[in-house]
């Protein structure tokens, strides 16, 4: 595991936020894979997962960027 990711895991608040995002992503992915899920709902799920990915990336990038700034 690289240094930045290790630092992310040590931040309790961030770790909790990432776990919530991951749990929601998994729940949506399982629902999407269900053959009874309507196409309309599947399209919504795809958009929701894209938002979750963006939220995750923003959290990770925000922490890494702020730690890089604090180095100087």
Order of helices and strands: HHH
The gross shape turns out to be elongated
Query: How big is the Rg?
Result: 15 Å
Counting helices, strands and paired strands, the structural category is mainly alpha
How many strand segments? 0
Largest β sheet strand count, sense and barrel closure: none
Sheet-strand content, in percent, reads: under 5%
Helix percent band:
over 70%
Count of discrete structural domains = 1
Explain this structure.
- The chain has 72 residues and is mainly α.
- 86% of the residues lie in helices and 0% in strands.
- The chain has three helices and no strands.
- Helix 2 (12-33) packs antiparallel against helix 3 (39-70).
- The protein is elongated, with a radius of gyration of 15 Å.
- The model has no long low-confidence stretch (mean pLDDT 84).
List keywords for this structure.
72 residues; 3 helices; mainly alpha
